[in-house]
Task: inverse folding
């Protein structure tokens, strides 16, 4: 069981233990019945107080994730119906539906139209399944997989959605974990494709310097997806008169941040340093959200005045968007991916003019670079 503890972060160590063990159970790395290290052994391995580990184990047991046998140790529960597994499935479904709704609203469709079309398509899909005698055989051969991990982006959601249509046999596993976490997942073999928009402060270049540092000597392929504008997402009419990053430090302005490790967070921290603005001088800096959609939602519900994000998220929430700077979002993979069944459909979509037009229509994107191979080895 491999766990990584951030001793300087804002998340309590006990919560880090609980969430990482849950994730390993959900992903199958800790299968049902697997024995966990003893409290003493895990505390010693991680350099923690044994009471912290004991509290994490008790919370996991209370939630049904593990069971403890008196004198026999702690084991992963063998009951697949545990509540946290159900919650994980619900979270994934919510993310899929949120992305589809955002894409539709970004293209100008009304909520009632989206709802009506969804109900119609779901009904048709159910009928096709009932009428299709080859369904079981097709499901049995559905073995092609693509695991994506990386920064949240609406163009990525559209790309993966189109790929699913082009290759119905393709199984997609999508995790919006932030740019840095996506590259780490690729390096550790937990992802086939990573999405990143990481600014290198020394060179001012996006992605390539950091990919070289994280994957030295690897046969890596870096392909441009889009150039996009990062900007300030503000309430309709911009009542607080926010126009520059410097305004985040003004009294009375409440900010909502992205999570640590995301490209947007890296960009923000870099710009604040160059402006001489301490993080503590930005009210709301400690509030973190995992996606641009969540940032826009916080501004829309009034719990924040401003966030840093992309235009399609602002449009979908009917908010104003003030562009600040342009960045490049790249797709990173190993050279071996060229032989994968999803590689050709991916490259075809990136070169497809109709796909590019739809992306551009969402606002804040430029697609002239889409599909360009930027790096073939590192």
Result:
């Amino acid at each position: 069981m491999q766990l990584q503890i951030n001793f300087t972060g804002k998340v309590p160590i006990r919560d880090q233990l609980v969430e990482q063990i849950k994730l390993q159970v959900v992903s199958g790395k800790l299968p049902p019945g697997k024995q966990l290290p003893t409290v003493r052994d895990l505390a010693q391995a991680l350099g923690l107080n044994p009471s912290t580990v004991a509290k994490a184990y008790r919370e996991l047991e209370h939630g049904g994730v593990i069971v403890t046998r008196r004198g026999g140790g702690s084991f992963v529960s063998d009951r697949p119906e545990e509540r946290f597994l159900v919650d994980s499935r619900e979270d994934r479904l919510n993310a899929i539906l949120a992305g589809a709704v955002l894409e539709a609203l970004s293209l100008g469709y009304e909520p009632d139209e989206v709802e009506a079309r969804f109900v119609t398509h779901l009904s048709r899909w159910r009928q096709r399944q009932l009428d299709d005698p080859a369904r079981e055989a097709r499901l049995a051969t559905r073995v092609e997989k693509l695991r994506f991990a990386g920064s949240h982006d609406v163009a990525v959601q559209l790309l993966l959605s189109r790929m699913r249509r082009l290759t119905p046999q393709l199984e997609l596993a999508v995790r919006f974990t932030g740019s840095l976490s996506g590259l780490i997942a690729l390096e550790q073999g937990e992802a086939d494709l990573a999405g990143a928009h990481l600014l290198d402060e020394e060179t001012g270049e996006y992605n390539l310097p950091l990919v070289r540092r994280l994957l030295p000597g690897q046969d890596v392929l870096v392909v441009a997806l889009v150039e996009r504008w990062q900007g300030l997402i503000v309430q309709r009419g911009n009542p607080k008169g926010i126009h520059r990053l410097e305004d985040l430090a003004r009294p009375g302005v409440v900010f909502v941040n992205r999570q640590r490790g995301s490209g947007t967070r890296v960009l923000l921290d870099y710009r604040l340093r160059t402006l001489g603005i301490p993080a503590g001088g930005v009210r709301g800096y400690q509030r973190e959200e995992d996606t641009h959609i969540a940032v826009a939602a916080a501004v829309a519900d009034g719990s924040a005045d401003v966030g840093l994000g992309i235009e399609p998220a602002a449009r979908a929430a009917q908010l104003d968007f003030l562009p600040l700077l342009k960045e490049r979002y790249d797709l990173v993979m190993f050279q071996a991916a060229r032989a994968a069944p999803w590689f050709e459909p991916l490259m075809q979509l990136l070169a497809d003019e109709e796909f590019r037009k739809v992306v551009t229509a969402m606002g804040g994107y430029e697609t002239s670079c889409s599909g360009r191979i930027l790096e073939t080895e590192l």
